[in-house]
Amino acid sequence: MDRLYRIYAVSSILLLIVLVSSPLKDHLKAWRRIQRRHNRTLRDLPQRENPIPIGLKQIWVRDIDRIDRCTTCHLGMKNRQLAGAPLPHRTHSKIYHDVDEFGCTLCHGGQGLATEVFDAHRSSESWEEPVLPKRYVESTCGRCHINEDLKETPVLNLGRKRIHELKCMACHDRPGAQSVITPTLDGIGSKVKDREWIIRWLKNPKALRPHTRMPNFMLTDEERKNLSDFLMQFIAFPDDATLEPLPRIYGLRKDNDDFIASGKTLFRESPCTSCHALEGQGGQLATDLDEVSSKARETWIYNFLKNPQHFQPDVEMPQFGFSEEDRASVTAYMASEFLDWDRPEEKSTAESSPYTVEQGQALFYQYNCVGCHQLSGMDTVQNRGPEHTFIGSKRIYQIWFEETEIPQTLHNYIDTKLKTPRVFGETMRMPEFQLTQEDRQAITCLLLSFREETLPNQFIKRGPSPSVWNPQGTMGDIVQKYSCLKCHPVKEDGGDVAPDLSIVGSRLKPDWIERFLREPVSRRPLIEERMLNLELSENEIQTIVDYFGSVLLDDGLAVPIVWRPSREAQERGRRLYWEAIGCQGCHMIDGHGGYVGPPLDDVGGRLQTGWMLHWLLDPQKYIPDTIEPKSGMTMPEALDVVAYLMTL
């Protein structure tokens, strides 16, 4: 009996300890300490606030049946007095959605049901999705905002831009992804001087052209040689295009200094460096030209200058109105200057054979070169990479980290894969893009947004489908011939390096447009003119001016009243410009004023009256990111300023 009493006594004591420790353990929970500390923080604020009741807090997002307990610790998210407090008491940075409606983990990730810091923030055996690092938080915006370029998501926007430019979807499927133009390889055997250039190019494309989108496939010497042998077999151009022989004047004068100087002048006046980089200076819209004459034959350069689309049907280079002699002189200039002076003299002694060509063809298929490049008879896409439709939902157990020592998270895997793709296995075929850290972050952020989880329709906001501006008739031929949309946007279609032409007919006067198209000249003294001198014909100029004035209009840009400017109105406008508003702080007239905005010496002959009026009243309505301030002037004051500007 004594033994039973002892067992009973010990068991009772243990049960008592358990009963006592359970509430004590709950009392000592970390989140309770945080809440008590938060109340002490509130007590010390300049404006006293009532303490929060101690207890678990949670948000139930009914539409997606998600429960978040993050606000148990993060109690000061909406309290602006806590902007400088330490975490987790600190005020949340700008909140774009109602926390009570969306919760926290929908944007930040993490385990919403957890009440322990580690379980809520980190991954574990039972939870694979840790809280996202701040640099990747925008990825969750992409789950709801499909293809929307919001000003609040610059990283996500850059990711969309980069995977489009790099043609990632040539190998990785993603619904809705669009392709970009890359050179066709038809006729490469007639274009390139010899296979040695192709061999050097395949070794490291960025070493020859730093701005190229072509990645490094890390081929062996033998693979590069075999692939070059295969490509040099293609000597026919698309649509049976043929190279015209160089004109007689080229053979007679190609080494003449005056002839070369004439080509150099044309090259600079055009100006070709608006799109092409040269010695690290110039545009990046097209390929670098530093060593183009070590690559391409003079015959091809001459013919390409005559009609680029004839040999590269989708190329966005405009046709210049050069004469035969002009093209010959520019070709002579490029052939004499744009050379790789450090090119090694030795050449591969191994000869091409049916075997090396066959091996090159196998490599062409193995690395899915046709995913980016067109090549007649090689239209079958093979060996694509894994689909990326739901890569943001990929589980850790599905990833083979090999022998790497990186933290085993999805975002670390994607970033490392973009940086050194072959580190996860020697049999990997993904090339090296030599991306910057900024680009890797942006692409990783975008890929993390490709989730399998289906959200209710009320959460989803889709961006507009890409618009296509396709004018018909003669104007359509001009737009195609001169690749106007490469630089200018029209109706949200086109480039972003030149002014939007969507309402140009309501903005610029026809006479000024005519003069500018004949001789493009920059209006800003500190900015070089980038508009190409295309040597347009008079008929083409008239077609453009008529089209602008009849189609690209905004009927809302009219003076809303019957108005005739008087001398008194002009004088009032002059005083407003120079004294009350101080427009000269940014704009120059007759050599007086600032350099921030364009000079206004000829504004009365350049801009339409209605445009000037509405621009003065609300410039951001027409160009949202303009730095022109909204002055707050009234309609009568704006009319007076317009009356003054019309005298210039």
Topology:
Layout: H1 2-27, H2 30-43, E1 59-61, E2 66-68, H3 99-102, H4 105-108, H5 117-121, H6 138-144, E3 145-146, H7 154-165, H8 188-191, H9 195-203, H10 205-208, H11 221-231, H12 248-253, H13 257-269, E4 277-278, E5 281-282, H14 292-295, H15 298-306, H16 308-311, H17 324-337, H18 354-366, H19 410-419, H20 437-448, E6 461-462, H21 473-482, E7 489-490, E8 493-494, H22 510-518, H23 538-550, H24 567-580, E9 588-589, E10 592-593, H25 603-606, H26 609-617, H27 635-645
Parallel strand pairs: 3-6
Antiparallel strand pairs: 1-2, 4-5, 7-8, 9-10
Helix pairs in contact: 6-20, 7-20, 9-11, 11-18, 13-17, 15-17, 19-20, 22-23, 24-27, 26-27
Describe the structure.
Helix content is 39%, strand content 3%. It has 648 residues and is mainly α. The chain has 5 domains: 30-131, no CATH class; 144-173 and 385-461, Cupredoxins -  blue copper proteins (Immunoglobulin-like), CATH 2.60.40.420; 188-337, Orthogonal Bundle (Cytochrome Bc1 Complex, Chain D, domain 2), CATH 1.10.760.10; 473-550, Cytochrome c-like domain (Cytochrome Bc1 Complex, Chain D, domain 2, Orthogonal Bundle); 567-645, Cytochrome Bc1 Complex, Chain D, domain 2 (Orthogonal Bundle). The strands form 5 sheets. Strands 1-2 form a two-stranded antiparallel sheet. Strands 3-6 form a two-stranded parallel sheet. A two-stranded antiparallel sheet has the order 4-5. A hairpin with a 2-residue loop joins strand 9 and strand 10. The mean pLDDT is 87.
